[in-house]
Give the backbone structure.
Amino acid sequence: MDWAHVFSEAYIVGFILLFFRFAALFIATPIFSHNSIIPSLKAAMAFFFAIVFYSSMPVINIPITTPSIAIAILSEILFGLAVGIVLQLAFNVISFAGGQISFMMGFSMASAIDPQSGVSMPIISQFLSLMALMILFSMDMHHWILLFIEESLHKVPLGGFVMSENLFNYILSATANMFMVGFVIAFPITALSLLSDVIFGMLMKTMPQFNLLVIGFPIKITVAFVILITTLGATMLILKTQMLAAFNFLEILF
């Protein structure tokens, strides 16, 4: 970098665009978008990393005018949101599966505020989401995102991102895949819950004194918890596979 031109108009505008690229990604991507990270801290992180990556920032090639700068800022925000949607669709597989499991276990009314999104969700979904966050940390996904930003600076010019048809097609297929994979994760508990309902129905026909609320539901919940614990490793492996596939797709943005 030619340090004599660091404070020129082109580099100042480039720093502003770099800041918005980091800010949009920190708002939209898993881990960094966690609700427990207050907005002011996200902004401070975006400003800090913009300073760190400032030396490797290429010179922008857009006109230094107010309309072009405004369009470039919107382009950077759109870039961060596009990356966040791709990664969130892969991450939300776990939340969707947890909702299905909670419904089959009878815990759909037992909800709590999810610290990841700040919305109310069933406790099984919240448990699986927290486990998924630990898996993402073990994968060093927070480092992957920073490396992705560094690589994107050389492949996607600041202010030059344009959404492609392939991105729209992927979002549609990823949404359908989220429902399909979520049902696959919840299928063992769903199948055993339906089987237990059939067995309890037969017992109530043969033994009318059988109390489903006192005996049946605790047994059903216990079996569901056993299956959940047994399949937890496979569930996290599916999440890891989905996140790796989402990161591999991000190359199309280049």
Summary: The first helix runs from residue 9 to 28. The two ends are 23 Å apart (CA to CA). The beta strands are 111-113, 120-122.
